[in-house]
Amino acid sequence: MRGDQIAQVRQFNRLVTQRVGALDDHFLGRGRPLGASRLLYEIGERGADLRELRQRLGLDAGYVSRLAKALAKEGLIRVAPGAGDQRLRTARPTARGRREIRELNDRSDRLAARLLGAISPKQRERLVAAMAEVHSVLRAAGLVIERVDPASPAARWCVAQYFAELDRRFPAGFDPADSLPADDRDLVPPRGAFLVASIDGESVAGGCIKTTAPQVGSLKRMWVADAARGLGIGRRMLEALEDRARGLGIATLRLETNKTLQEAIALYRSAGYRDVAPFNADPYATHWFEKRLGRTRTSRARARGTASA
Fold this sequence. Notes:
Layout: H1 3-19, H2 34-43, E1 48-49, H3 50-57, H4 61-73, E2 77-81, E3 89-93, H5 95-117, H6 121-141, E4 143-148, H7 153-169, E5 192-199, E6 202-213, E7 216-224, H8 233-247, E8 252-257, H9 262-270, E9 274-275, E10 287-292, H10 297-308
Parallel strand pairs: 7-8
Antiparallel strand pairs: 1-3, 2-3, 4-5, 5-6, 6-7, 8-10, 9-10
Helix pairs in contact: 2-4
């Protein structure tokens, strides 16, 4: 990472906060801190679970709790235990809070219109396009990939989205009952793993691996949400699955896919997977791939450290 890149990011951050008015104590909220106004906006007119908001905004639990107490003291929200789980706390706006949220939206629109109105139509188009690009890249920068229980809601949701996409894209549809199974017990260590990628608490990709023979594994059900494609998330998920496979002692990773999924085929080939003869009888498979997994830079460094110890 170069010093000039870091300097450009800092310069960009300073200019943006100045231009949008974030340095003003009254920005969006009548003297209220920006954090409190943002939390009220995210709670919205329907209300929201505070734990979900913490994950979405990437904020400390104590900080969110203090902001919520301040909003409640202003009479803008009410905080109560969740209906299904008493440990969860749900924030809902009062009538005054709903009026304030509508005012926040109006004020935000006016500020945005003022910024766009200060430049020419051509510059306006360039700025909006650049903002859209920055927004997409910054979303990708917030990606978190973690291992989850294959029976968790996040894992189940990713698999359901994967199956639904296959059903839409395959000419004759897709029936999970006809495909090769991936039982939950095979997707937990030491036999396998299920990974989910999320951005601000929203699941955007998933995939799993399972051991099929000594030092041989299978990559299954890798999926990326439509809205998250083109951001390099598929490659990052593939790399994370490969790294997890290495940790499970898998030296050769295999996968099967369908000719309809051209983007996936291109990704696998660019990542070093080679076409091989069919190694299973999956009725939906038209392509079979295999990759010999080398050690990562981290694992090589760890091995050198062990050898020298």
